[in-house]
Every structure is written in structure tokens, then in C-alpha cells.
Specification:
By secondary structure, the protein is mostly helical. The chain is 71% helix and 0% strand. It is elongated, with a radius of gyration of 14 Å. The two termini are 22 Å apart. The model has no long low-confidence stretch (mean pLDDT 93).
Length: 59
């Protein structure tokens, strides 16, 4: 699995967790919504340090 494939999967996960957060808020599950939002934010933060396939390696 390439780095770009991993990045695409994680970006899909972020969208899914944000969608779940909206659903949880709509049925008044605020704690679950907060957890889903935090999880999406943490994955998004991790993506900032994930290199892509086109990045050069540092030796």
C-alpha cells in the first residue's frame, strides 16, 4: 500500500467521522458526537505529518 493510498483512506475516514458526528448530534448523543469530532481532528492532524509518495526521502 502506497503512502498516497493510505492518505486517501484516512481522508475518507475523516469525512465519515464528521458525518457520524452530525448524525449523533441530530439524535442528541452529544458525547458520541464530541468523540467523533475529536477523532476526525486527530486523524487530520496526523495527516499533516504523513509524507506523500512524491516527497523525497531525507537521509
Amino acid at each position: 500500500m502506497t503512502k498516497d493510498e493510505i492518505r486517501a483512506i484516512l481522508q475518507t475516514d475523516i469525512i465519515n467521522f464528521r458525518t457520524k458526528a452530525q448524525f449523533y448530534e441530530s439524535i442528541r448523543l452529544s458525547e458520541a458526537a464530541d468523540y467523533a469530532k475529536d477523532l476526525a481532528s486527530n486523524i487530520e492532524l496526523a495527516l499533516t505529518t504523513l509524507p506523500s509518495d512524491s516527497d523525497t526521502e531525507i537521509n
